[in-house]
Amino acid sequence: MCPKLAVINFSYYSTNTEWTYWLMTNEDIFQKLCDLIGPYNKKSLSLNKFTTFSGDLSMDSLTVMDLVADFEDEFDILIPINILPDLDTIQDVADAIEKIQNRE
Q: pTM for the whole thing?
């Protein structure tokens, strides 16, 4: 199955002063999320699309909010607070980030 397309990231190369961009797939977003979750993964669990924040990773609400702030900074987005209760798994977050960035 082809991965979903999401997010256009811009990168500035100072050596040739040209802007370049590339499309991130949903899988790319997922991998970046796993990298960001790593320092919060106190149980050293193997992360997959179905890993839950409160159940599997045993994160409390304060830790989740810190993590959400990291996601927002990394992807340069704002995650609406009203969708947070629906973001149970890492894949839920990847899908939400893809949707938010495709709207912008």
A: 0.77
